[in-house]
Specification:
Arc Repressor Mutant, subunit A; 42% helix; ten-stranded mixed sheet; 24% strand; Jelly Rolls; globular; 2 domains; 264 residues; 10 strands
Length: 264
Amino acid sequence: MTEIRHQPVAPTHARLLEHGGAIDAHRHDDHQIVYASRGVLAITTDAGSWVAPATHAIWVPAGTAHAHQAHGELELHLVGLPATDNPLGLDDPTVLTVSPLLRELILAYTRTSNDDTPERGRLRAVLLDQLKASPQQPVHLPAPTDSRLKALCAILRADPTDNRTLAALGRQVGASDRTLARLFKSDLGMTFPQWRTQLRLYRALVLLAENTPVTAVAHTCGWASASAFIDVFHRAFGHTPGTHRQARLERRQNSVAAMGSAPE
């Protein structure tokens, strides 16, 4: 990431991003909770990408240089927290499950005036309590640093349906399957099958945000059948792709917020 802007204070507010819209690389001296109540949000750092549908939020620690990308029309909610206030004790970006109650708390907190009233303080306290209870989700696509892994991951990013074995891919990038398996664990912190599944889930969320039919998503992302895709998606996100799509439509129909165009 280059030309990283420094915005010391992480703002608290809500805004809209059109499909394909982006917020360029920047960093805050504060922590930030980033939540999309509509659409699919992707946050990218030098360490990789984190993706979150409207059932999840992303924790961005203070000082982390990051960029935002919108998939589908994005209703973005940002909550800034002082660097001294780390209720989760997390030093890396993390995807968190958003319960119905936490969702409403985030919406209320980011759509009201940013003042220091006792009422707002109580709202913030409950929000942080709910945040602490939110399960973490491993929806992270780490970025490789090794040149051989970079080449292999680029092949799969270009074509997630590529089902070749690690040995076959290794012959193309000039490394043995044993070496690549070791690099996946040491460089990316996961196995090759785990990384490929994360890549496919990432692509699936993007396609679902673009209203691609579930069966087409399954085949475009490399699953042998729609049922196999649905099973993996359900285990990763706690609901089926069909439920995900219906919830997106309902959120869009029910959204009545008047979003401004304030900076991130």
